[in-house]
Amino acid sequence: MICATNRDLGQRVQEGKFREDRCTGRLKVVPIELPPLRERREDIRDLAQQFLARTAAEHGRAAQTLSEGALQLLDRYRWPATSASWRTSWRG
After folding, report:
1. What is the CA radius of gyration of the chain?
2. Cα–Cα distance between 33 and 48 in angstroms, integer?
3. 55: which of 20, 39, 63, 90 lies 20 to 30 Å off by Cα?
4. What is the mean pLDDT of residues 21-37?
């Protein structure tokens, strides 16, 4: 099982808002920090193409590619959230 959160669980434990024994006592915890998309701009084009291909497959359509203009628009956008929330909004 893989779980993810955008919360600092160590801080939440100290604040009494998360019980450490609920998770770490039973599971092997390996923290993986992934910077927000706005800090990984080099990933935007690949993620966009991947989301487009996945969405097309889910709807039984042929995979398409984004135009260079569309990719440039994505490059210029200030991404306020993570790639996971972007994937959710991608589906509209």
Report:
1. 18
2. 21
3. 39
4. 73
